[in-house]
Amino acid sequence: MKKFHHYITILAGTSLLLASCSVGKKYTRQDMELPDNFRNNEIVLTSDTLALSWRKFVKDPNLTALIEKALIKNTDVSVALLSMQQLELSYKQSKKGLLPTLDLNVGANRTWLSTNSLNGSLSDQFIGTPYMDDYNATLRLSWEVDIWGKAKMQKEEALANFFGQKENLSALKTRIIVQVIQSYYNLIALDEQLKIAQKNVQLSDSTLSMIRLQYNSSLVSSLAVEQAEAQKKTAELLIPLADQNIAIEENAISILCGGFPDKIQRSEGLDATVVGGTLATGVPAELLSRRPDVKAAEYAVVAANSRIGLAKAAMYPSISLTPSIGTNSFQFNRWFDLPGSIVKTIAGNITQPIFQKGALKTNYEISIIEREKLAVQFKQSVMLAVSEVSDALAKIKHSDRRLQLIEAKSNSLAKATSDAALLYKSGMANYLEVITAQNNALQNDLEQISIKREKLNAVVDLYRALGGGSDTE
User: Fold this and answer.
1) Is the pTM value of this prediction over 0.90?
2) Which uninterrupted H or E stretch holds 111?
3) Cα–Cα distance between 87 and 157 in angstroms, integer?
């Protein structure tokens, strides 16, 4: 017995000595080879640009109320929060990896033995019954010695998964903020398109009335009246289309805000929807710490790196100690008759996988490939982030130029429409010139609204691409 205890002591000592070994490698970020600046960047760079809170970026009180509602009631956010709670519990559980497990087993059984067996004959002789009872209560402690640092790697994986989900939640909130803002802009743009259509219906109606008077005076043919009627219908067709799109956009915003389709309160005109001023873009490398989707992609690589270590550790031997103490008796009234009923056991085990049909090695190789895949995806997310900033900068730059050009075009077309009406009244222009001038002005006004909306959406895209969307005041 002393010799056995000696072996157990050696086993425990060896386990503690090897417990400092670890087969997992520490994660190191790959070289991104990022450019020094963003393309199309004409904004003054700063080295300490921080993510701008959406509350400072958005100035419209109606839009602010919608975003607040969306961040609280959006169903995707609710699901993401529940996922975070799951991963938080997993992380808390992983911190207990070094603790032993303790089980209590209490049982009783009765066995009717064969009278022709040795145990059966002895039972009838010594106990005086044709059956044998066995009452057992055992408290068993089991502890696996963490030789290869598996508990640490499990904790690292769980922590990376938790922080990855946290960044995914931030990315989701940012995406919802942007979707609400851009849908809000689209809704106001549709309002302006409706006003332009209504204005052109009134203008076309005045032109039609003037042409009808000339037709009644036999100054123009019926063709002129029909052309004027067609021009009026062109403007009228825009009204039900705008009403339809407005209803659809309001429904979309309502769903984003976690509610059923309803009317949306909004400002009057795109010029009233003020957003934050010029955004300092910083340098591409800062996106690694600003963009939540990029950070989530890196945390996925960290978690995969820990899984490689766990897969490798599964191929190595494991050492466990299992002491137990309890009571055992064949008579119920003497079950807890101490110390006679006490039974004690101590065991040490070394388990070395030998032949698992190559499963352990395959799992290890798969985990390496999985990490490489996630590393490529992480690099791709960085490249995409840099590209999105450059795209947004290009859109802002060129939409400003387009707005300048279309403003000059609007002034020319407004004068052309007015001049065409005056010349027509004096007989120096025909009805086709009047209708053409009105149609050109209508299309130009609609295009101007589209460019304004594109400019505002580009600013919002830049805000998101730079990692904006935080709740920090």
Assistant:
1) no
2) strand 101-112
3) 11
